[in-house]
Write a structure and sequence with these properties.
By secondary structure, the protein is α/β, with parallel strands linked by helices. About 40% of the residues lie in helices and about 25% in strands. It has nine helices and 14 strands. β1, α1 and β2 form a beta-alpha-beta unit.
Length: about 260
Amino acid sequence: MRVVKVGGRAQADPRLTYALEDDWKASPGALCVVHGGGDEISAMQRTLGREAAFIRGRRVTSREDLELLRMVLSGAVNKRLVASLVAAGVPAVGLSGEDAGLIGAELIDAATLGFAGRPVSVNVDLLRTLMNASYLPVISPVGYDMMDSAGGALNVNGDDAAAAIASVLRADELVLIADVQGVRDSNGEIVCNLSCDSALELIANGIASGGMAAKLESAQAALTSGVPVVRICDLAGLNDSERGTFITQSQSVAL
């Protein structure tokens, strides 16, 4: 069982559908996909005269951005990916974190990040029902605001959402697909194995920043919650189990 988070740039690669198809066919009912779509959101913000802003790899989200997120992530991006998988013969089901309370979230820091949320609950029964029937859940990480009685949304970072989902599904592996082969050290070399502590040091030293720092923080959350290994890799790593950077609780396990 594994959870795969696919970044927005990887979704533009025509190989993605076939890579996910191969992964699903190898073990139907043992795969769950979470997707991003940051570049498309930023492009739409610019079209509307807004400027995208990020803090530690997480998007600053205004109230006006929430409808945009729903439209881009839960609408265009989710359905486009689902349609390509269905056309390839994969029984993919598109969901957002708002559907059936799939991803319950709470504000991280309204003063700095606005309507960005951290996942605090996952409707694992919904996911297990789909996966036990051999469907492939494809999830947009727009969460529902657990503190909003009117049913508001929150922007949940895709890596954070994938970590929370991997934890409740007790996944054997969380795979975070990036636009780089793996995590780089201070010399620019790909690191094959990292412990949690080493990953946090890369963030503290500024070697890992922005989106990569967010991925490493999400990896730590998943590992702390019981996921045995997190792998950060490029799209080629989806069907190559040895590719990328492996992160575990301790270096001894990673090696």
